Amino acid sequence: MFHYSGNDLYCEQVPLADLARHAGTPAYVYSRQTILDNYRAYDQAFGDLPHAVCYAVKANSSLAVLALLAQAGAGFDIVSGGELFRVLRAGGDPSRVVFSGVGKTADEVEYALSSGIHSFNCESEAELALVDAMAARRGVKAGFSIRVNPDVDAATHPYISTGLNRHKFGIPMAEASAVYERARRLPHVAAEGVSCHIGSQMLDPSPILEAVDRVLSLAAQLRAQGDPIRHVDLGGGLGVAYQASERTPAIGPFVESLAARLRSSGLKVMVEPGRSIAGPAGVLLTRVLYRKKNGHKEFVVVDAAMNDLIRPALYRAHHDILPVRRNALPPVTADLVGPVCETGDFLARDREMANAMPGDFLAVATAGAYGFVQSSNYNSRPRAPEILVEGAQYRVIRRRETYEDLVRGETV
Ligand SMILES: *Cc1c(COP(=O)(O)O)cnc(C)c1O
Question: Most buried of the four, 8, 15, 141, 362, by CB within 10 Å?
């Protein structure tokens, strides 16, 4: 939904140069249609197989984005009480919420139980005992899955690979069945499923398929032992193309290969995609402030920085840099840097890109997931607004922060 018409970059039918002039920069811009298309690609490819697409809230937790997905019928995968609050505020259905994460606090478990979420993806036996105790206090029975660690290598960036035994996530496959067995003695939890999530930004989905086979054989074993396992939750993790040389694995065929493995199991399948729904749906708009040269090195200094988008600094991630209006100048090889006082503050390094001059706008591509949500106020920079485009219209779904916002809650 981001495309050039003539020399101008558009989001749906909105020219981004107009939007940048009206809303100011830096600004996050999302295509409503792309978010919906990606969600529906998951939902429709499962066909009549019982399924739930639980969008991973942490990828992009803007209320308007959550509301859009809730209305389209999505469930939600949350990793904190704050994310549950957002889902409920956006009109999400708590009975379609699964709660993941290694460090749920008692307060968060209490909030989730009182909200009536679908189930907990438990990552340790101690957590399961806590859920049982808190459910007992409320006189309810909580559904749970154990997040198993299938010990498969997601072959992605080490910070977002989660499925090996040396990672903090989940319970090793070999120990899982004993944990389910001991859980049968806990009166206030009920084994509903088996879950896993082996990592993120996987351009090759074959590790996920390998994990599915392991999770399914555990589920079959547990059912044979009398656990009423109803679903398998396969997590998220499908990657997106951040640069032209990468190929985005198509959602439809990926889901069909999952479905083919699951059809005979009689189990409902859940998935928790985040990046593959929101990532391609957003850009970060920024304006060139200055051009400078230190020795032979060219710098393009822009008004967006690592506090707005930390992925390049944190993961050395690549985002394509697109001119909002193409000019006739030859491209330049430069570092695209922001105003933050850190050498790590770059959005692109040694990159051949459009020869943009002060005042020109650039779009940092594929920034819809893990973009705004990881932004901060570092260097006391107000956070950027978020804007949702629908056809030829757009609306500000989160206004730009003010200096007053920066000090809210503080005292001298
Ligand atoms: C982060 C996360 C996801 C989403 O991962 P994507 O790579 O964004 O699809 C899903 N499930 C869990 C448990 C996660 O931590």
Answer: 362
pLDDT above 80 for 358: yes
Residue span(s) of the chain under CATH 2.40.37.10 come to 2-30+280-402
Q: Is the peptide bond before 339 cis (omega within 30 degrees of 0)?
A: no
For ligand 1, whether the C-beta of 197 sits within 6 Å is yes
Note the Cα 166 to chain centre separation in Å: 23
Report whether pLDDT(247) > 90: no
Ligand 1 site, residue 275, Cβ cutoff 6 A: yes
Q: What is the mean pLDDT of residues 279-288?
A: 98
User: Is residue 50 within 8 Å of 407, Cβ to Cβ?
Assistant: no
Please determine, for residue 311, whether its predicted confidence score (pLDDT) is greater than 80: yes
Nearest CA among 45, 186, 213, 116 for reference residue 194: 213
C-alpha–C-alpha distance, residues 329 and 132, integer Å: 65
Q: Where in the chain is the domain with CATH 3.20.20.10?
A: 101-271
Question: Could you confirm whether 341 is annotated as catalytic?
Answer: yes
The answer to whether the CB of 78 falls within 8 A of the CB of 89 is no
The predicted-structure confidence for 61-104, as pLDDT tens digits, reads as follows 999 999 999 999 999 999 999 999 999 999 999 999 999 999 99
Distance 196 CA to ligand 1 centre (A): 10
Q: Tell me if 58 CB under 6 Å of ligand 1.
A: yes
Which amino acid residue places its CA nearest to atom 3 of ligand 1? 236
pLDDT in tens, 330-348: 999 999 999 999 989 999 9
Element (H, E) at 376: none
In CATH terms, the superfamily for domain 2-30+280-402 is: Lyase, Ornithine Decarboxylase; Chain A, domain 1 (2.40.37.10)
pTM, rounded to two decimals: 0.97
